[in-house]
Amino acid sequence: MSESSKRSLIKLAGWSAVAAAAALVGCGKKEEAKPVAAAPAAASAPAAKPAPLKIAFAYVGPVGDGGWTFAHDNGRKAVEKEFGDKVVTSFVEKVPEAADAERVFRDMVGQGNKLIFGTTFGYMEPMLKVTGDAKDVKFEHATGYKQAENMRTYDSRTYEGAYMAGVLAGGMTKSNTLGVVGSIPIPEVIRNINSFTMGAQSVNPKIKTKVVWVNEWFNPPKETEAAQSLINQGADVLFQNTDSSAVLQTAGKNKKFAFGWDSDMTAYSPDAHLASAVINWAPYYIKATREALDGTWKGGGHTWWGVKEGAIDIVSISDKVPAELKGKVEAVKAGLKSGSFSIWKGPIVGQDGKEVVAKDAVADDKFLSGVDFYVKGVEGSIPKNK
Q1: Rounded to 5 degrees, what are φ and ψ at 184?
Q2: Of 2, 161, 250, 342, which residue is most buried, by most CB within 10 angstroms?
Q3: What is the pLDDT of residue 384?
Q4: Left (φ > 0), alpha (ψ -120 to 50) or beta: where does 233 sit?
Q5: CA dihedral 270, 273, 275, 281 (to 10 degrees)
Q6: Between the CA of residue 278 and those of 64, 111, 238, 286, 348, what are the distances in Å?
Q7: Mean of pLDDT over the chain
Q8: Residues 350, 382: contact at Cβ < 8 Å?
Q9: What is the pLDDT of residues 160-207, one digit of tens each?
Q10: Half-sphere exposure (Cβ direction) of 199: Cα atoms closer than 13 Å
Q11: Which of 348, 57, 364, 372 is nearest to 188 (CA)?
């Protein structure tokens, strides 16, 4: 073996010894454990979002009638705006006041609605039939008087709007003859005709009121015919308790005056329009929905709101109305709001000359709910309600 080979073997052995020693040192040193990061706390599962309250409305007319049903649908929209995704609303329009209404209510229950509004008088009996089979559903009936454990009634004091319209009519007529297109001869409508007449007589004692009945809530051709008949009989200011704008439009074509009813109808005949007696259903619908959502809703009661609660108003009074007459209407409105003025305060005399409300006495709600007579100044007779 050469000298150089020996040196290479010695060098290689040396490097091997160094490597072995290093390995022994590495094996002898215990590796320090790295700190383990704390596991993040388990996030609590978000509470399940409650399902929205399903609410259904049954309408007697089309939502575009410009009057009664239009006002109710505005109330429905106000509920959606107020409660957002907490509610889901729907409606069925042109539901007849007959047995078919019961089918509609049962269908609403079947679709999972838990709050149902029936928005006309004729739904009272059909709705009552359904309440017993749907105890978990809350029913609301407009203008009725029968209640159940899970059904209550509500109304607006439309006679307050009628009275204020009467004040304007009494001051604007030249013939001293007013005309009213009546829908169905029930206390609600008769009360409005009388209140309109009393409002007119408060500024013009010579007033006479003629009435033509159409026996329907919404029938524009019949309403038009009735309005024309009243004009032919000498009426120069018309009022209505029907749902369409036909009466106002007929007045416009004949260059007479008339009022909007339930909703602001100015746009249908601006020249003929004296004012609109309107209903705002939003305050009650929002109240009822809130109660259904928070569990405080109770059946079996009746709510009757008017000017005081923001449910009734007279709006868009024409520029043709003198300032003094407008002032009288505003005074009445202020009195109704504060409770200092009562429309049905005696003495009030019936068409037959007999006193129906004694001097200084104020008719209570029970009396008002059963009005079935004309006051002095209203001509004709009340037909029997079919």
Answers
A1: -120, 130
A2: 161
A3: 86
A4: alpha
A5: -80
A6: 16, 32, 16, 18, 26
A7: 91
A8: no
A9: 999 999 999 999 999 999 999 999 999 999 999 999 999 999 999 999
A10: 31
A11: 372
Locus of tokens 């505003």: 330
Identify any residues that bridge with 258 across adjacent strands, giving them in sequence order.
238, 273
φ and ψ at residue 308, rounded to 5 degrees:
-55, -40
Report yes or no: 118 and 127 within 8 Å, Cβ to Cβ: yes
3-state SS, residue 371:
coil
Query: Which residues, in sequence order, are bridge partners of residue 257?
Result: 237
Q: Binning pLDDT at 50, 70 and 90, where does residue 82 land? A: very high
**The tokens 């089918």 sit on which residue?**
103
What is the token pair recorded at 12? Answer: 């290689």
Q: Tokens 């559903």 belong to which residue?
A: 137
Q: Could you tell me the pTM of the whole model?
A: 0.87
Q: Under a CB-based contact definition with an 8 Å cutoff, are residues 71 and 260 in contact?
A: no
Strand partners, 312: 279
Among positive and negative, which fits the CA dihedral 4, 7, 13, 19? negative
CA 194 to chain CA centroid, Å, is: 25
**Encoded tokens for 262:** 């339930």
Q: How far apart are CA 186 and CA 139, in angstroms?
A: 22
Residue 310 phi, psi dihedral angles, 5° rounding: 80, 15
Domains of the chain: 53-157+282-308 (3.40.50.2300), 158-278+311-369 (3.40.50.2300)
C-alpha distance from residue 325 to each of 274, 330, 342 (Å): 12, 9, 19
Beta strands in the chain (DSSP E): 53-58, 87-92, 115-118, 138-142, 151-156, 177-182, 208-213, 237-240, 257-262, 273-279, 302-305, 312-315, 348-349, 355-357
Q: 338-342: which pairs have CB atoms within 8 A and are 24 or more residues apart? A: 338/308, 339/308
Structure tokens at 227: 């309005």
- Collapse the DSSP code of 386 into the 3-class scheme (helix H, G, I; strand E, B; otherwise coil) and give the result: coil
